[in-house]
Amino acid sequence: MNFHLKTALSSLRRAPFQALAAIFVLTITFFVGTALAVLIYSSSRALSYFETRPQVIAFIKEGSGVEAIASLQNKLSADTRIKDVRYVSKEEALSIYKEATSDNPLLSELVSPSIFPASLEFSLSDLSFTEDVIKEMKSEDLVDSVGFTASLGGEKTLDDVVSRLRKITYYVRLGGGIFAGVLLGTSFMVLMIIISMRMIARKDEIEILKLIGAKSGFIRSPIMIEAVVYSLIGVFVGWLLTLILVLYIAPWVISYFGQIPVLPREPVVFFALFGIILSAEILMGVLLALGGSSLVLTRARRKK
Amino acid sequence: MVKFKNITKTFGSVSALKDISFEVEKGEFVFITGRSGSGKTTILKLILKEILPDSGKIIFGNQDIEKISEKELPLYRRKIGCVFQDFKVLPEKTVRENIQIALAAIGAPEDKWENRIDEVLKAAEIEQRADFFPSQLSGGELQRVSFARALVVEPELILADEPTGNLDWDTAKGMMDLFEKISREGITVIMATHNSLIIDKIKKREIKLK
Q1: Cβ within 8 Å, pair A212-B50
Q2: Biggest alpha carbon distance in chain B?
Q3: Which of A63, A144, B125, B201 has a Cα-to-Cα distance from B20 of 20 to 30 A?
Q4: Cβ–Cβ gap B48/A204 under 8 Å
Q5: Arithmetic mean of pLDDT, B176-204
Q6: What distance in Å separates the CA atoms of residue A223 and residue A220, rounded to the nearest whole number?
Q7: Consecutive H or E run containing B117
Q8: Phi (first) and psi of residue A52, to 5 degrees
Q9: How far is B81 from chain A (nearest CA, A)?
């Protein structure tokens, strides 16, 4: 085993309570950090889900020709403000209706395709274009009327839903960021205190090492490795706890949110998400440990 | 090998050394003697560049040690082995590990460590205690560990600060035999001591501080 790693691990074993204190604080930080990352992912996915729902439905006048409809569809597809244009025929409209009223078959039996108009459904790349696009659609000869999907959670328009989700996402990010920042700051301080205590405990050893000609890198390495070990254990345990928690609540979350993909449903994507979070946290943990230990070592050197 | 030219060192209002000049030749064994507080340890610290003189010059080989930068200091110190009165061994490490750390610190290749450690353990006559911890050793044995650690890096100069200060006469004699042995092998030894029995026994040049 590497000489410095061996020294760092033996130093860790010599003061288990200091090591545990540092690891415990770092575990809490990265547990919350991982949970926040998942929460930010979920809110972003929910926002993106609502943003990409068909938002505008242009109902086509009865008797409009297929070529004219196709021409309008092409025109809309070419418009950069508009995306995911889809033609819904009368029959498709009926089947959507039937599906929506499947719990009451009587309702679907009373209707025929003829009462449903064909439509062109599409979403907007940005909701700020809504008003203009609706106005333009209304001026089209083929278009009978224009609908705007809404009525989710009592909001009047989808715009309300999206803006509410945007707000929630913003506050989750802001609040989460501040909270994570405070926890990271606390971890940084605790790490610095523990490293300072370890240095005081190793004062004689450091003095001897200097006298026998050890370079500063040789003296610093075990101290920095020790901090990185604390950090990596904290990262891994915190991450693992969140993973277990999310795996435990995932069935409930998925069934509660239904079609809204707040959590990845495919195991590969799910573990890839956690893999990415772990990689980012390892990087952050290593930077935290190296930053904290370097600061303590630099301060100790200046004091001398 | 070591030249002190008009060295003066004060600590606050206390004058530790005043206009001291002397020279130690390569391979020489020299005692620095004087009463407590006369500046013996200060001389050793000046050679190690732990402290700097207020005035004067210290030359090691052809190098003015004042001009050695922070970065070069470890390389300079690798030429010097130190033996202390209070041994300065690491209590959590075994005898072998205490010596090993010196080799690790100078970046000696790991595959050479074991042979070199065995050599110095034998030279210091403590090979039977290699896997003991300092708490399991006597004062004389601890001093031999300190000696072995100083020797393992193959220094050009050994600085010994009262190495027999905590030892009984018989143990001290044994230690001095070790110093004489390495001196005969060409290593320069500068020893600070106030033990007149030792000085009388060894009969080497003496630099007296007043």
Answers
A1: no
A2: 51
A3: B201
A4: no
A5: 88
A6: 5
A7: helix B110-123
A8: -100, 5
A9: 7
Q: How far apart are CA A231 and CA A30, in angstroms?
A: 9
- CB atoms B153 and A214 under 8 Å: no
Residue B82 in contact with partner chain A when CB distance is under 8 A: yes
Torsion of CA A204, A206, A207, A211, to 10 degrees: 140
Q: pTM value?
A: 0.71
Dihedral of CA atoms B39, B40, B44, B47 in degrees, nearest 10, equals 60
Name which of A28, A291, A294, A47 is nearest A167 in CA terms. A47
Backbone angles phi, psi at A83, to 5 degrees: -140, 165
**For residue A253, what are the contacts with CB-CB under 8 A and spacing of at least 6?**
A262, A263
Q: Which pLDDT belongs to residue B55?
A: 93
> Is B105 within 8 Å of A211 when comparing Cβ atoms?
no
Sheet of B205-208, strand order: B80-83, B157-161, B188-192, B29-33, B205-208
At A225-267, the pLDDT tens digits run 999 999 999 999 999 999 999 999 999 998 888 878 889 888 9
Q: How far apart are CA A163 and CA A175, in angstroms?
A: 18
The single-letter code of the amino acid at A276 is I
* C-alpha to C-alpha distance for A87 and A66, rounded to whole angstroms: 11
Which of A10, A204, A218 is nearest residue B105 as measured by Cβ atoms? A218
Structure ipTM: 0.85
pLDDT of A206 reads 87
Structure-model confidence comparison of residues A126 and A145, the more confident one? A145
For the CA atoms of A18, A22, A27, A33, the dihedral, rounded to the nearest 10 degrees, stands at 170
- When comparing pLDDT for B50 and A105, which is higher? B50
To the nearest whole number, what is the mean pLDDT of chain A?
A: 85
Rounded to the nearest angstrom, the minimum Cα separation between A213 and chain B is 4
- According to DSSP, the β-strands at B29-33 and B205-208 are parallel
CB–CB of B167/B137 below 8 Å?
no
DSSP designation for A261:
-
- Which residues in chain A are closer than 8 Å to B158, comparing Cβ atoms? none
Q: CA-based Rg of chain B, rounded to a whole angstrom?
A: 17
Taking the CA of residue A207 and the nearest CA in chain B, the distance in Å comes to: 9
Nearest chain A residue to B146 by CA distance is: A208
Q: What are phi and psi of B161, to 5 degrees?
A: -105, 105
CB distance from A268 to chain B under 8 Å? no
Q: Could you tell me whether strands B55-60 and B2-11 are parallel, antiparallel, or unpaired per DSSP bridges?
A: antiparallel
The Cα–Cα gap between A156 and A191 comes to 51
